[in-house]
C-alpha cells in the first residue's frame, strides 16, 4: 500500500554550468539560465510503501512524516536561493531532477526500518513540469 | 532512474463515427460523441520520459528540446483543429477516440525521437491524454 504526503516550498534558483559560456547555458537551460535567478512554488509529494501495522492500522505516522519533511526539506529550502543557500547546489545545478534526488537523499535516512520505505519523490517545479525519483538503485519507474 | 513529466494543452474537436458501422449502431455506441457536427475538448497531454541523470547538466531530458518536439509534431497540428478533417491520420477509417489519438501521438514522437535525442536516453515512457476532468487515457510506451 502507498501513502503520499504533500508539502510546498518556494525558492529561487538559476540553472547554469560554470564551465559554459552564458550563451551556451542559455541554449541548454533557456530562461532558467537568466543570471539573477527566478523562483518557483515547488510542490513535493513523498510516497511511502508498506503494510499497515496491525495494531495502529497505519503504514507510517503521517504527522511524523510531515515533521521529517518539514525539518529536512521545507525549513532549509523554503524562501531560499538554492544556489547560494542550500548545499550541494553551490556546486550542483539545481534542476528539478537534482533537487528531487537531493530531497530523496535527505529523507531516506529518516525512513529506514519499520513498516514503511521511501518509494517515490515527486517534485513539481511548475504545474506543467514534474520529476519522479525512485532512488539510485531502482529500475525504470512505474 | 528519474522520470520527468511535462504537461501540454491543446483544444480540438472530434466526432466519433466508425464508417464500418450503421448510423444506428454508431449512435448506440458513441452516444452524443456521434452528434453530426462534432464537439470539442480542452485536452491535457502528459509526456513522461525516463533516463539516468546526466551528472554535468543535472538533467534527464532537455525540456526545451522535448517542448520543441511535442510542439512541432503534435501541438501545432492538433491545436484548434477538427481531428476528423484537419489531421491526416484521421481522414480515413480511423476514429479519433483518445485511444487512437494517443497512438498517433506516439507514432509522431517516435518518428522524430532520434533526431531530437540522438543518444540512448531519455526514452519515451508513457503518454497520457485527459479529454475531460473525468477521463484520462494512458499509453505505456517503454
Task: Tell me what you see in this structure.
The complex is a heterodimer of chains A (142) and B (142). With 142 residues, chain A is α+β, with helices and mostly antiparallel strands. Chain A has a single domain, classed as 2-Layer Sandwich (Tetrahydropterin Synthase, Chain A). Chain A has four helices and five strands, in the order βαβαβααββ. Chain A has helices at residues 22-29, 62-77, 82-85, 96-107; strands at 2-13, 38-50, 80-81, 116-126, 129-133. The model of chain A is unreliable at 138-142 (pLDDT under 50). By secondary structure, chain B is of the alpha+beta class. Chain B has a single domain, classed as 6-pyruvoyl tetrahydropterin synthase/QueD (Tetrahydropterin Synthase, Chain A, 2-Layer Sandwich). Chain B contains four helices and five strands, in the order βαβαβααββ. The longest helix of chain B is centred in the last third of the chain and has 19 residues, at 98-116. In chain B, β4 and β5 form a beta hairpin. Chain B has helices at residues 23-30, 63-78, 83-86, 98-116, and strands at 2-14, 39-51, 81-82, 123-132, 135-140. A five-stranded mixed beta sheet of chain B has the order 3-1-2-4-5. Helix content of chain B is 33%, strand content 31%. Classes of the chains: A alpha+beta (142), B alpha+beta (142). Chains A and B meet through α4 and β5 of A and β1 of B. β5 (129-133) of chain A pairs antiparallel with β1 of chain B, so a sheet runs across the interface.
Amino acid at each position: 500500500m502507498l501513502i503520499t504526503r504533500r508539502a510546498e516550498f518556494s525558492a529561487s534558483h538559476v540553472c547554469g554550468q560554470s564551465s559554459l559560456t552564458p550563451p551556451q547555458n542559455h541554449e541548454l537551460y533557456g530562461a532558467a539560465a537568466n543570471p539573477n535567478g527566478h523562483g518557483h512554488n515547488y510542490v513535493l509529494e513523498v510516497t511511502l510503501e508498506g503494510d499497515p501495522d496491525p495494531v495502529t492500522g497505519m503504514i507510517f505516522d503521517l504527522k511524523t512524516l510531515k515533521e521529517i519533511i518539514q525539518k529536512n526539506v521545507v525549513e532549509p529550502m523554503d524562501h531560499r536561493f538554492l544556489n547560494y543557500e542550500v548545499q550541494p547546489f553551490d556546486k550542483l545545478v539545481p534542476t528539478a531532477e537534482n533537487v528531487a534526488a537531493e530531497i530523496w537523499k535527505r529523507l531516506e535516512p529518516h525512513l529506514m526500518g519499520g513498516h514503511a520505505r521511501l518509494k517515490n519523490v515527486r517534485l513539481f517545479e511548475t504545474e506543467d513540469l514534474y520529476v519522479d525519483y525512485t532512488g539510485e538503485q531502482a529500475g525504470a519507474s512505474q | 532512474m528519474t522520470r520527468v513529466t511535462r504537461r501540454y494543452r491543446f483544444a480540438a474537436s472530434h466526432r466519433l463515427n466508425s464508417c464500418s458501422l450503421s448510423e444506428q449502431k454508431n449512435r448506440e455506441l458513441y452516444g452524443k460523441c456521434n452528434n453530426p457536427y462534432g464537439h470539442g475538448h480542452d485536452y491535457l497531454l502528459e509526456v513522461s520520459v525516463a533516463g539516468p541523470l546526466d551528472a554535468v547538466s543535472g538533467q534527464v531530458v532537455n525540456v526545451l528540446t522535448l517542448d520543441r518536439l511535442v510542439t512541432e509534431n503534435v501541438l501545432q497540428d492538433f491545436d484548434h483543429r477538427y481531428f476528423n478533417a484537419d489531421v491526416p491520420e484521421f481522414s480515413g477509417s480511423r476514429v479519433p477516440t483518445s485511444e487512437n489519438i494517443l497512438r498517433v501521438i506516439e507514432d509522431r514522437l517516435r518518428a522524430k525521437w532520434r533526431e531530437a535525442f540522438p543518444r540512448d536516453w531519455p526514452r519515451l515512457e508513457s503518454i497520457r491524454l485527459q479529454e475531460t476532468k473525468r477521463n484520462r487515457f494512458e499509453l505505456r510506451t517503454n
